[in-house]
């Protein structure tokens, strides 16, 4: 881990220090700009802005999480420049990686927050427990909820990393005993960027940070607060197996002929059509593969309530049925009503006949 | 709960219950009415030929084609295109299999009953647009033609709307227009549920009764040797 | 739709003017409709999808293009009443008042649609894609109208003479027998065959009465007319007076049984065929102990058995199918067997047989004066049809149709006269080879 340099240094100062060539930097900017759907003409401005960006303080809080999001972002096979970008920010608190612990760590955090009050970026992974005053997830005697609300006060913006922080994720799955919620349900007065995914694609965070640093503003967000540049299309729309869907060629079981021919996994529960993310284009592990390419349907992990949306192996059209009994009861009730109506009608007929 | 999980969950269950209850009510309520026995001597004992009217009445006699052929052709085409859209599109077939699996003790029945080849999505889209277009033309005819205008009522208009809505919303979902995909898909599913809820109470029930009616009339007419 | 007539005129049309309150009359209409009502009528009323194709099959719509003549519209008040009183959702309809109660005013307005512009010909039933027997529903609706006293005056028997009581048949037939020098048996105590005739034919087409006798005698069959079962007329069937119709049917059945006949032969008639052949057994309550044949069916049977041989008439002919006998009744091919036996070059009109156009006079329409203009418009269809065949002769097997054609011929100064199949046969009897 490269040691933390002083707050306030610009990126080009840092890069010069590291011996990274201007050419490499520009290559990075071009790649980053195209991923965020910026036109080629914007690259020079982007590069200039990024070069002159000052290192903001970043506080990273971890709540009810499995650490998968942080692990995803910390992969040692991430490119050097991405690591550098993480050094561009002054990562003043990340309990996963910091050497300090206990009160020393908390004091360091409080100091960083005070020094950069109003300007630091707050990154959050994991959901926040709210039931029973939030007692189900605490650190240092303080509930996650209280820590979050306190830390958000001085934040310039909040980035919810991973589906748990964005939407509540797995802790929120029924019956949600801890009252887990996403960050945006608690923070209403600061901009919240949701980078969902379980875990999120690493370069999505990089891209969002780069944009924030270069342009000083948060990227365009969709209705769920996710950056449109990375969450604007569904997996389905970018999936390389889409032609098979359109042709109607589906794998019916894992390892049948269709599966082995790489056909569409729709009937095996792929949630690609209803899932917005960049897995189909950016893929995972430096572009190695993504679930569909490896033969398993998309779980929809970047969407809210993906765990409760029915089985991963039920195709999208499938209903979340209660039980057959209710429907059978409805049928019986209908038949009874019909029989009653017919009986009344026949009785009336008999009366009419008797009268005449 | 998102709109989509609502549409696929409780809304679907309620719609199915109303659908089943309403159909049972209406059919039983009719079938238990008094049936008249006919003591007259039959000219012909050929129930099979009478039942054939179930199918033969689908094709108009050439004497009548001139007058009503246009209307009948449009009607058949949009009906067939609609049924093809519903039954030959893979996601719909998956749903039908699932419905059967949910309600029958042996899940494999669903796979067997609803196992047929499906059409590519593009063709389905074409059929859906064909059906929608013709439905619009049929509606225009209903408004303009004096006979239809005189005999049409609320039932006709609502049934038309609830039949068209799933087609339009389905096409919108397929094309990803009209909003986020999950929302448009949810609206499509809700529109089908609205159709299911209205189905037993309006003229759409002709789906269940018309073949029986044709068959009974056919049997009664053939019995007399009357023209069918 | 305009109201059919002023209050004073309406009073003349009904049995009990002013005595019975309108609401009660609607009640009686609905009760009468309901009495015969059953599952079949119910499912018919439930299945209409308002496609309007029945209008395209109806000659009244064809010649006027007025939407009010749409056949299924004729039963609209009864459909509303069914939904409100007898349908599966009837309690809901009443609770939420989804359809208002049928009013007497509505039934009055429907009188024109059910009587003056409908022959119950059944073309609509042929075209309906749902398979609804619309004509059958109309016949049932007439039961209701009759109970409400809404039958057109002309269809109500005014005197007992209309119900054939008190007519001196012996004298009438005796006179015919003398004039035409032919034996016409009446009231033989026992015979294999009972024949019937039309009362009107005694005056208008006496030749057809004689023709029946000539044919039956020629065939040397054991037959008789029976004074208790002489008139096949059943005006009550046409008007919808179900109880009276039932009484007439029973009377005819009983008389035929009393003679010990095995067959009852109906004359050239239309609605009487429907009433006797298809309804009488149900009025009797069980299968009849004798066969019922329309005379054209009887003649065809005799031809096919080789018993009836006819002289060849070297002319071309076209056949007008009487709706109740042909399309509704099923005796479609029988007349053509006879025409072929007569050596006629049959040129079918278009459309023909089961889909032929109605003459426009049946179902009581020819009797209703107010319907004359409309009926004449329809008659143009028939004239065009017959002229298009280029046939020399026009033949039918229904006295009602014949009267309609005669009236049309006079009105339009047409040069074609509609002939009778029975008369044609009687005029061309040949000796059977020994």
3D architecture notes:
The complex is a heterotrimer of chains A (356), B (228) and C (434). Chain A is of the alpha/beta class and 356 residues long. Chain A folds into two domains: 55-230, Rossmann fold, CATH 3.40.50; 233-319, Cytochrome-c3 hydrogenase, C-terminal domain (Cytochrome-c3 Hydrogenase, Chain A, domain 2, Irregular). Chain A is built from 15 helices and nine strands. Chain A has helices at residues 11-18, 22-35, 43-51, 68-73, 80-88, 102-115, 144-153, 162-167, 202-215, 228-231, 235-238, 242-247, 257-260, 279-282, 324-355; strands spanning 57-62, 90-94, 120-125, 128-129, 138-139, 142-143, 155-161, 180-181, 192-195. In chain A, helix 3 (43-51) packs across helix 9 (202-215). The longest helix of chain A has 32 residues, at 324-355. The radius of gyration of chain A is 27 Å and the shape is globular. By secondary structure, chain B is mainly α. Chain B has one domain. The model of chain B has no long low-confidence stretch (mean pLDDT 90). With 434 residues, chain C is α/β, with parallel strands linked by helices. Chain C has three domains: 7-151, Fumarate Reductase Iron-sulfur Protein, Chain B, domain 2; 161-301, Rossmann fold (3-Layer(aba) Sandwich), CATH 3.40.50; 306-430. In chain C, helix 18 links the parallel strand 6 and strand 7. In chain C, helix 17 packs across helix 18 (334-341). Chain C is globular. Chain C starts with 6 loop residues before the first helix and ends with a strand. The chains are: A alpha/beta (356), B mainly alpha (228), C alpha/beta (434). The interface between B and C is large, with 62 and 67 residues.
Topology:
The complex is a heterotrimer of chains A (356), B (228) and C (434).
Chain A: H1 11-18, H2 22-35, H3 43-51, E1 57-62, H4 68-73, H5 80-88, E2 90-94, H6 102-115, E3 120-125, E4 128-129, E5 138-139, E6 142-143, H7 144-153, E7 155-161, H8 162-167, E8 180-181, E9 192-195, H9 202-215, H10 228-231, H11 235-238, H12 242-247, H13 257-260, H14 279-282, H15 324-355
Helix pairs in contact in A: 2-3, 3-9
Chain B: H1 3-8, H2 10-31, H3 47-56, H4 62-87, H5 90-103, H6 108-113, H7 121-144, H8 146-151, H9 154-175, H10 181-198, H11 206-224
Helix pairs in contact in B: 2-10, 3-11, 4-7, 7-9, 9-10
Chain C: H1 7-13, H2 22-35, H3 39-47, H4 53-57, H5 59-64, H6 76-85, H7 90-95, H8 104-116, H9 123-127, H10 134-147, H11 169-180, E1 193-195, H12 199-203, H13 206-218, E2 223-225, H14 235-239, H15 242-259, E3 263-266, H16 271-284, E4 291-294, H17 295-304, E5 309-310, E6 316-320, H18 334-341, E7 345-346, H19 372-389, E8 393-396, H20 399-412, E9 418-420, H21 421-427, E10 429-430
Parallel strand pairs in C: 1-2, 1-3, 3-4, 6-7, 6-8, 8-9
Antiparallel strand pairs in C: 5-10
